[in-house]
Task: structure prediction
Amino acid sequence: MIQTESRMPTAEGVRAATAAVAAILPPTPLLPVEIGGVKAWVKADNLQPIGSFKIRGAWWRLSSLTAEERASGVVAVSSGNHAQGVAWSARRLGIKATIVMPHNAPEVKLANTRALGAEVVLYQRPGEDRDAVAARLIEQNGGTLVHAFGDPWVIEGQGSAAIEIAAQLGRAPSRIVACCGGGGLTAGLSLGAPDSAVHPVEPVGWDMVGQSLAAGRIVPAAPDAPKTICDALQPLATKLINLAVLQGRSEPGVAVTDAEVRAAQRFAFANLRLVVEPGGAAALAAALAGKVPVDEDTVIMLTGGNADPAAFAATIAGDG
Amino acid sequence: MIQTESRMPTAEGVRAATAAVAAILPPTPLLPVEIGGVKAWVKADNLQPIGSFKIRGAWWRLSSLTAEERASGVVAVSSGNHAQGVAWSARRLGIKATIVMPHNAPEVKLANTRALGAEVVLYQRPGEDRDAVAARLIEQNGGTLVHAFGDPWVIEGQGSAAIEIAAQLGRAPSRIVACCGGGGLTAGLSLGAPDSAVHPVEPVGWDMVGQSLAAGRIVPAAPDAPKTICDALQPLATKLINLAVLQGRSEPGVAVTDAEVRAAQRFAFANLRLVVEPGGAAALAAALAGKVPVDEDTVIMLTGGNADPAAFAATIAGDG
Result:
């Protein structure tokens, strides 16, 4: 059993992570957007070097490793964006990275992860337990697990977006609407923006953070959970470390449909000239569908832009 | 005969335009890009509110009009992006705008221009003389012509990008690679960045600025000029005011093929997560094709992002 929840993430940790991220990554643009006649903002983290916010948490985690830990390498489990964040950071720090990815991850994410120099180990989704695959690798070869969301450094690193947003806006946003998978980003934002309402947005049927928040305990995904185009937002369950941070801090979860996500991708294409992948468009989908309040101090996070070309083409041509 | 070339644009005018633009538009992002292993920069003017750099020149021209001129309205001729810049600025300043556009302009540009409150008058392309249509409108109804490139204020306004880039980079770029239609942007950049090499990039067969620079006189487009997907870069000829600025300041012109432009659009989609229209991708196409030098202080301008969805889908799916 690998222990990833060695400590709780803190607001102080988010501030330290923000400084570490700022030292290596320029702030992503905060761009104006009009939603139903209301002017608001989008935080374009799809413009990060790896095309997603995941670079924040991965960089903070890996740059916080001891020399001894770095020498043993890192192992991560990811559908693709965390994979690229870990691979990018590992290459920069000279650390060996092994990433466990689903066999049906988007080709672009598999290719990008390999191009960044990481070793990719595939597992069957659904079916195989990806955490077990990672645990076996670590038992065999050693290394530090860099969990995609259930890790205090990763949570703090993702939270750097909140402090970056406040600096760009010149004040705390009224609310931050965020795409949510396992809850690493929303937990980080909740710590980094204590005066803002943080809304986690998940795919219908995969709203495991929203359901867990409502139940007050971890609710796993149903074995017969519906398909979703949001490949980045399909964790089997959130983790206690995420729920502990979110409980009492986060707004209730919101769930969006595939059709709403596609409409958001088309909106970003036509009005923002940005490429947003399905999982990266969930927060915008909720705002456009009127499922979260929007005012002039609202920030909607665009969390990823690693879109499969064929699927994106079908979506913007209107037949996807 | 309408006189648009009433004075020459100046470097001082570019500085004044930069202040006027900065007062109303936040700087567009300067983003890192890697071209053939060399790190360089893209200036993402496709992220302007109207999706193109044309908002710069239009704003400086319209905000410089006298109260009397404002009351009479403005008339512009444009394939779509200048149209939106003029319409956006006119609405903000409470000026009536009439825009002469080709009947076969991309639907997205016609729709956006009308949505911004401008009256659109269509002409046949090829065939009708669009400048004559505009002249007739002004004879009948009055108003000030806002030429898309042959106007000193428009040139100065476009040049604001150069000063914005230098401020973001912290120094003068070694070179700026710019998509070029009539030469308004490249003329403005040449004035605003006197210490940088400015490279105009045009579609093959429509390189009227490059040919005019080489010939030392205005060379009009051939009647049998080939088709190009760069709808924004098809002026019938540059104007004397542009050539006078560019001669002795600009680098020689570079011409790119449709295939090179599509490859640049795909590169921007996959690596930058940005939507770039064909005419907005010409400079990037030249850099990727090795037709201009690229070093770490090179800035490549992405000038527009108003892409037709069906055409963009075909391009990124690889069958366009």
In short: The mean pLDDT of chain A is 95. The radius of gyration of chain A is 18 Å. Residues 11-53+152-316 of chain A form a domain with the Rossmann fold fold (CATH 3.40.50.1100). Chain A touches chain B through 28 residues (CB under 8 Å).
